[in-house]
Amino acid sequence: MTKPEIGQKQNKSLVADTEEFIDPGFFIIDIKINGKVFHKAVDGILTFESEDFSELTDDEIDKALVQCSYYRYTFLAAGAEVEARLSRVQRKYLTWFAEVSEDARREIMQERMDYKKEHKVPGSWFGSITKLEIEQRIATDPSTYKKYYKYDALVIKLKKQIKLLYGLRDILQDRGGHLQSIGRRKLENRKMTFGVTG
């Protein structure tokens, strides 16, 4: 199954210095949301067709502004979807964690009672069972540690995707402002050129 691509394909690279190498995979966004896969090399979105901004035509600036708006919305919508998924994952995780926490607490209490009887030590030796003790038990218990680390890895991945998507949205906001400045500058230059006589 081929992955649908967002946007245009370009042969330009974000790296202007030909002696510097950045792995092209660094610029790939690959996110699955509600069964749809978004696969895009973002360097094509972030570069300009022409490296000399004074050579950009009005049509190229207009086209780039439209693309900025399109991609800003795309990344905003994708970020919101990933945030919603993160909330669902965290809710599910908290429910699971609450259930296994009770089991872990009972196991720790039983171990303490067994130790107290076996070694004839006062109960005051043991403080209250801490949240850290429960979490360590869940993170190391053969029946729970796989799920614990799976959830943890998924949360890290989703938070990273959210940061990337909203970061791209902000970059494109800045790029749109930059394009508008170029357009205004070109218009002012044209006005000045037409105003010159002789």
Structure description:
The N terminus is likely disordered. The chain has a single domain, classed as Helix Hairpins (Orthogonal Bundle), CATH 1.10.287. The protein has a two-stranded antiparallel ribbon with strand order 1-2. The longest helix is centred in the middle third of the chain and has 62 residues. Helix 2 crosses helix 3. The chain is rod-shaped and about 100 Å long. It is about 65% helix and about 5% strand. The N and C termini lie far apart (about 65 Å). By secondary structure, it is mainly α. It has four helices and two strands.
* Cα separation of the termini: 65 Å
Helical stretch tally: 4
Supply the helix-strand structural class: mainly alpha
Residue fraction in strands: 5-15%
Question: What is the CA-based Rg, rounded?
Answer: 28 Å
Please write the CATH class name: Mainly Alpha
Principal-axes shape call: rod-shaped
Which CATH architecture?
A: Orthogonal Bundle
Q: Which strand order spans the largest sheet, edge to edge or round the barrel?
A: 1-2
What percentage of residues falls in helices of 4 or more residues? 55-70%
Low-confidence runs of at least 5 consecutive residues = 1-17
Counting DSSP E segments of at least 2 residues, the number of strands comes to: 2
Number of domains: 1
Mean pLDDT: 78
Largest sheet: 2 strands, antiparallel
List key phrases describing it.
198 residues; mainly alpha; Helix Hairpins; two-stranded antiparallel ribbon; 4 helices; 2 strands; 64% helix; rod-shaped
Question: What's the short version?
Answer:
This protein has helices at 43-46, 58-119, 131-140, 145-195; strands at 28-33, 36-41.
